[in-house]
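Action item from last meeting closed. Structure (340 res):
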């Protein structure tokens, strides 16, 4: 079966940030493809580089950041875009749903001002038509009494309602790609489910592509077509979401799956990955997961593995695991290291 053409492609993306007079890497080797109309989940521990990857797509990087490799949207290089083309990318082609809406919605302006500003200033839509458009969008994302909500301020809305406002703002741009950066982290479990259902339904109805960043492997597998796993600034595995549980080949992916709580397990201790997670700048010349990997050999410490085909996916490992079960044995001594 032929895969859809790639809308977004990241090839050998590397990002460094200025720290104490030098530059430290925060992304080492990110290769990722998001085909048109599909959802790709980006999963990994805190600090693995997921959010930095998403921000790189829109060139929303800290001052002084340096990049190499390439990011292509519809075949056009994002790092090479002019200011005018980049503005179009940010206001029309790609929309981002941030983790904390309170940090990204102006608290002194009404919800209506926030939602209509882009339509009026970048699209030339008349204020009355813009208000009608965003009112309909609020209803689409499950906001009751939408007309009244437009007159309210962010402080008057709950976290769940504000995240729905953020989703409506993203959809108002009419984008081709959604970047969803852990959009449910600050919400309670019930509201999380509602918000993710809204995002997924809106995406499918509009035929949008999505890069979905999350810590939750099960959620990524449920709402995405493919799942990419990150560790220490590198995508270590990329495979169809339906094969995540039975056909993961990278030892880190297996260890994350093994660390998940199991219903009915009673008081059995959670299994965790031995050692501690590494930041990208701590990684040596070899495989960054080698110090924690039960399958590591001498070559793993000195040579960084390149992604290679494994079944229907790709795995960056010198010794990818072929037997789907059991998952690698992991230690119970450091539960805090397993965030998957």
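Sequence:
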């Amino acid at each position: 079966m032929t895969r859809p053409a790639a809308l977004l492609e990241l090839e050998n993306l590397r990002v460094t940030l200025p720290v104490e007079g030098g530059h430290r890497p925060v992304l080492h080797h990110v290769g990722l493809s998001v085909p048109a109309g599909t959802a790709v989940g980006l999963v990994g521990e805190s600090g693995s580089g997921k959010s930095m990857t998403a921000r790189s797509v829109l060139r929303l990087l800290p001052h002084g950041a340096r990049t190499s490799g390439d990011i292509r949207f519809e075949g056009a290089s994002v790092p090479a875009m002019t200011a005018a083309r980049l503005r179009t990318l940010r206001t029309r082609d790609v929309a981002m749903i941030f983790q904390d809406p309170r940090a990204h919605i102006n608290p002194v302006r009404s919800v209506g001002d926030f939602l209509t500003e882009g339509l009026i200033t970048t699209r030339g839509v008349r204020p009355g038509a813009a208000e009608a458009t965003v009112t309909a969008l609020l209803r689409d994302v499950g906001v009751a009494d939408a007309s009244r909500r437009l007159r309210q301020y962010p402080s008057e809305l709950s976290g769940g309602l504000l995240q729905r406002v953020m989703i409506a703002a993203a959809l108002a741009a009419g984008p081709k790609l959604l970047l969803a950066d852990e959009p449910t982290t600050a919400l309670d479990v019930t509201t999380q489910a509602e918000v993710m259902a809204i995002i997924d339904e809106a995406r499918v109805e509009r035929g949008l592509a999505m890069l979905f960043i999350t810590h939750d492997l099960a959620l990524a597998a449920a709402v995405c077509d493919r799942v990419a796993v990150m560790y220490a600034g590198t995508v270590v595995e990329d495979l169809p979401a339906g094969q995540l549980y039975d056909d993961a080949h990278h030892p880190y992916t297996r260890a994350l799956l093994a660390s998940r709580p199991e219903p009915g397990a009673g008081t059995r201790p959670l299994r965790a990955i031995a050692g501690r997670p590494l930041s990208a700048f701590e990684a040596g010349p070899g495989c960054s997961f080698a110090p924690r990997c039960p399958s590591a050999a001498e070559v793993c410490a000195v040579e960084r593995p390149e992604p290679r085909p494994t079944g229907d996916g790709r795995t960056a490992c010198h010794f990818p695991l072929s037997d789907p079960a059991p998952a690698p044995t992991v230690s119970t001594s450091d539960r805090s290291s397993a965030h998957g």
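Note appended to the action item: Residues 232 and 282 are 8 Å apart (CA to CA).
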